[in-house]
UniProtKB/TrEMBL annotation:
CDD domains: TM_PBP2. It comes from the Bacteria. Belongs to the binding-protein-dependent transport system permease family. Residues 94-283 form the ABC transmembrane type-1 domain. Pfam families: BPD_transp_1. This is Carbohydrate ABC transporter membrane protein 2, CUT1 family. It comes from Actinospica robiniae DSM 44927. The keyword Manganese does not apply. Residues 1-23 are annotated as: Disordered. It is a multi-pass membrane protein. Keywords: Cell membrane, Membrane, Transmembrane, Transmembrane helix, Transport. The chain crosses the membrane at residues 29-52, 101-122, 129-150, 162-183, 204-229, 262-283. One of its GO terms (cellular component) is plasma membrane. InterPro entries: MetI-like (IPR000515), MetI-like_sf (IPR035906). The lineage of its organism: Bacteria, Bacillati, Actinomycetota, Actinomycetes, Catenulisporales.
Length: 298
């Protein structure tokens, strides 16, 4: 009678089979620790300048230029924030910055969405060539366009006016490209069904495609608002009237030739950044969603 007992596995073989299963979780844990450590380090490096700016805004002028520098102020000078209001016309500059940012953002959302819809869904001869030429604008440095744009504003007698701040920034090749990619990610069946129902291009754009592109519009709107709010070169060139300046120009004027009051400058920079921080915190999730959904097709 044959022995039906199964052969016993050597003790060493069982231990050898268990080692890979133990090593895999260990590698995952080590990888997770390394990734989180890298992210924490990157967060500290990115938050470092903002923290230094915040602490400097409460220092005295002597402490801000001390060598070696100190991290914490010996006494907290809240008067730096009130001194900003005395040094620059903060209220009028804030209003000008808001008008500039909102006008640029609204215009880009309108014109870029219409151009993006045309490049994504309308069929016309030479569409690819026209789109390639359109994107070639991204290769041109912004500084090269300053002189012709300034000449146009001068010919239109718009220098030292509020419209001169936002008129050249009403169109964006990047915004058109971003929204085109988002439109291409939408199901083509929606466009075909609307055409079969008798809807024209304008009706399809306003009633169907544009509401579905809301995440992409929010992403482009926030990016445009940030760029417009932080723009310094163009407002500095087209306006020398103190009543028409933006916050970025006003803060730049706080820098002296021989001495700069860094605590007051840092306090003004924080006050100017606060509106953008609030907008970004409120719209962060939708903006990330909009950027993630673009470029998935086309």
């Amino acid at each position: 009678m044959a022995d039906s007992t199964l052969p016993q596995r050597p003790p060493g073989a069982a231990r050898a089979l268990d080692e890979p299963s133990r090593q895999r979780p260990n590698r995952r844990v080590l990888g997770s620790i390394g990734a989180h450590g890298f992210l924490i380090l990157a967060s500290v490096l990115l938050a470092g300048p903002f923290l230094w700016e915040l602490l400097t805004s409460f220092k005295s002028l002597t402490e801000s230029v001390a060598v070696p520098p100190t991290l914490l102020p010996s006494s907290w000078h809240l008067s730096n924030y009130t001194n900003v209001l005395d040094a620059v016309p903060f209220g009028s500059e804030l209003v000008n910055s808001v008008i500039n940012a909102l006008a640029r953002t609204a215009a880009q959302l309108l014109f870029c969405s219409m151009a993006a819809f045309a490049f994504a869904w309308l069929k016309f001869r030479g569409r690819g060539v026209v789109f390639a030429l359109f994107l070639s604008v991204l290769l041109v440095p912004t500084q090269l366009l300053v002189i012709p744009q300034y000449q146009i504003m001068q010919d239109l007698h718009l220098l030292n006016t509020i419209p001169a701040l936002f008129l050249p920034g009403m169109f964006s090749a990047f915004g058109t490209f971003l929204l085109r990619q988002f439109f291409l990610s939408l199901p083509p069946e929606l466009h075909e069904a609307a055409r079969l129902d008798g809807a024209g291009p304008v009706r399809i754009f306003w009633s169907i495609m544009l509401p579905l592109a809301r995440p992409g519009l929010l992403a482009l709107g926030l990016l445009t608002m940030i760029w417009s709010w932080n723009d310094l070169l163009w407002p500095l060139i087209v306006n020398d009237d103190p009543g028409k300046m933006t916050l970025s120009v006003g803060l730049a004027n706080l820098q002296g030739v021989y001495l700069t009051n860094y605590p007051v400058l840092m306090a003004g920079a924080l006050m100017a950044t606060l509106p953008l921080i609030i907008v970004f915190v409120v719209m962060q999730r939708r903006v990330v969603e909009g950027i993630a959904l673009t470029g998935t097709k086309g």
